[in-house]
Amino acid sequence: VQLQASGGGLVQAGGSLRLSCVASGFTFDNYVIGWFRQAPGKEREGVSCISRRLRGRYYSDSVMGRFTISGDNAKNTVYLTMSSLRPEDTAVYYCAAGRFTEGECSQIAQGANYGMASWGKGTQVTVSS
Length: 129
What we know:
Elements: E1 2-6, E2 9-12, E3 17-24, E4 32-38, E5 45-50, E6 57-59, E7 67-72, E8 77-82, E9 91-98, H1 102-109, E10 118-119, E11 123-128
Parallel strand pairs: 2-11
Antiparallel strand pairs: 1-3, 3-8, 4-5, 4-9, 5-6, 7-8, 9-10, 9-11
């Protein structure tokens, strides 16, 4: 189970970015994919989660309405499209996979500390004011 996150960069406040998380060694049939972020000096927090078979989509309160999680089975890739970015969204963003239920996926998006099976390397997102 391997994950590779990419797509970060520098963007002005109000702008958009799309992060990608390419999965290898497994399919989305049995795994949820979560997006997390960690800002300097802060704890890692949940951002979003998409459940098995790319069905349910869940978000933290801080990104609801601005971020969209989606997936492409053919490309084995999950995306996080981020709009209306704010300076407080600046962080290293990580994707991770785990075998969890729909309900657990919704809790992961809210920051529940479940043991994800695999983590990708982070991608830096910097939002300037």
